[in-house]
Amino acid sequence: MAEQTLYDWAGGQPAFERLTKVFYRHVHADPLLAEVFAHVDKDHARHVAMWLAEVFGGPAAYTEERGGYAGMLRHHIDLQITPALRARWAQLIAEAADEAGLPEDPEFRSAFVAYVEWGSRIALSNSQPGAEPPPQAPVPRWGWGEAPPYTPTP
Fold first, then answer.
1. Which band of pLDDT confidence, cut at 50, 70 and 90, is reported for residue 73?
2. How does pLDDT run across 77-128, given as a tens digit for each residue?
3. How does DSSP assign 69-82, residue by residue?
4. Which residues pair with 146 in a beta bridge?
5. The domain containing residue 97 runs over which residues?
6. What are phi and psi of 121, to 5 degrees?
7. CB atoms near residue 93 (< 10 Å)
8. Which of 75, 116, 134, 153 is most buried, taking the most CB atoms under 10 A from its CB?
9. According to the model, what pLDDT value does residue 70 have?
10. Residue 131 in 3-state DSSP?
11. 31: burial class by Cβ within 10 Å (0-12, 13-18, 19+)?
12. Distance CA 109, CA 97 (A)
């Protein structure tokens, strides 16, 4: 029997759409993040929901419709995300998970927060001037307590 994905455990696509709807409502009202996200298009929350759904084991809709890893990477290049912005983003999405009714069990939340920390730190790194992230990579597929393999750069 196959292990249930984090996507299925969370409640599928509707759960991630609730999450991003709640999250971006808070982002747009946040004194630190509002300006950063002031000019995103009206479908931004839905696109992030698609990304998260794919990462957590759902359908590859982000890859098919938005270009996968390369598509996500384009949104972060040269943004110059600061550590404070990254930390606030991570804090708000973790809080939004509560309000959106995502599962509260420690195993799910541990995996969820681990991805948020991992992914937001990669976005921070990739957003800096002169960053040279790999132009192509797979969308990470996050599991129960597992991060994708780490390959240190020289």
1. confident
2. 888 999 999 999 999 999 999 999 999 999 999 999 999 999 999 999 999 9
3. HHHHHHTTTT----
4. 143
5. 6-126
6. -75, -35
7. 25
8. 116
9. 86
10. coil
11. exposed
12. 9
Q: Does residue 116 belong to any structural domain of this protein? A: yes
Alpha carbon of 35 to those of 28, 31, 41, 82: distances in Å?
Answer: 8, 8, 14, 13
- Is there a domain that residue 146 lies in? no
Per-residue tokens: 113: 């927060």
AA identity, residue 8: D
The residues, any chain, with a CB within 8 Å of residue 106's CB and separated by 6 or more, are none
Q: H-helix or E-strand containing 52?
A: helix 44-55
Six-digit token pair at 79? Answer: 């943004």
Instruction: Flag whether pLDDT at 149 surpasses 60.
Output: no
DSSP, res 135:
S
- Model pTM? 0.90
CATH number for 42: 1.10.490.10
Is residue 61 in a domain? yes
DSSP string, 59-128: -SHHHHHH-HHHHHHHTTTT----HHHHHHHHHHHHHHHHHTT----HHHHHHHHHHHHHHHHHHHHHTS
Q: Which amino acid is at 71?
A: G
Q: Which two tokens stand for residue 33?
A: 């993040």
